[in-house]
Amino acid sequence: xxxxxxxxxxxxxxxxxxxxxxxxxxxxxxxxxxxxxxxxxxxxxxxxxxxxxxxxxxxxxxxxxxxxxxxxxx
Length: 74
Known about the structure:
By secondary structure, the chain is an alpha+beta fold.
């Protein structure tokens, strides 16, 4: 099975209520004197719009970061 960013997020339990689903960062490289590369993935496009072509494959040692979106309670 090929792991993608969206599959890895689902396997980890999904998103929290305040997760920024449109700006998930996959960081690749940087381990062996090579520059790290950051790839932004919009999971909303993948899950809600069916854009599976935008779901990036995950490689060994990749890191996935999901930050909280800005929340305004006013």
